[in-house]
């Protein structure tokens, strides 16, 4: 390798790649945990090192120049290689301490994860858990999280996925809602009731109808992309809510509707990167999560 030809700093390359992928300097600075002036200096330093102009102002935003776009594929390959190095090193770590990031839906993170983390603290007090409460699917390959609790099976071959359980969700209403609107006694009667829905609404209606729940779009009275907000709206009596049974069990005041109705299936997959699965601390957190989720499946029957 011609070491003399490599005249740039990896940190500057990382700043450049983040700026391109995040779409702005401010977003890239947030993603890297830096200030925007620091990021701007790193990009300016890279431009000086390479003798190229990488960004130009277009209106009120910065856009990558043709020279920058020529470099992106090579720089992205460097970023992926750096990520693989971090994954491999983390996977070989033998210390049962340090930080492990876990991503799960906001509802799972708020209502179920605290009890599980209490158990983890008893067996591994040296582990800090970074909880990424997000309803989108985080990218484990790019180390946005170490472990993910998901409701769909990941397709990437680099990921280790285990189906922990098949849970179920039901329909629930607050006493205030039932007092005002009455309790639906049949599935057909649900068509005249209000629901809390999720974004996108048309997809939510399609899914509910596919599971046999007659929800019309004009009966969606509250819409949100947050599971916590949706549940709190239902608890406030604004409309009927959909919730996993193990979460609903924490709120005995919420009345289950049509208990004979077949629960909406909610598979729970526990996923991590294949390399990280060999890390003692990540494997420990993974196993604690698996055991706790398995026990939940027994308790909500």
From TrEMBL:
Please report a single Pfam family linked to this protein: HTH_1
Q: Name one GO biological process term.
A: DNA-templated transcription
Q: Which InterPro entries match?
A: ArsR-like_HTH, LysR-type_TF_proteobact-type, LysR_HTH_N, LysR_subst-bd, WH-like_DNA-bd_sf, WH_DNA-bd_sf
Q: Which GO terms describe its molecular function?
A: DNA-binding transcription factor activity; sequence-specific DNA binding
* Ranges of residues in domain HTH lysR-type: 8-65
Write out the entry's keywords from A to Z: DNA-binding, Transcription, Transcription regulation
Family statement: Belongs to the LysR transcriptional regulatory family.
In Swiss-Prot or TrEMBL terms, this protein is called: LysR family transcriptional regulator
Its source organism is Psychromarinibacter sediminicola
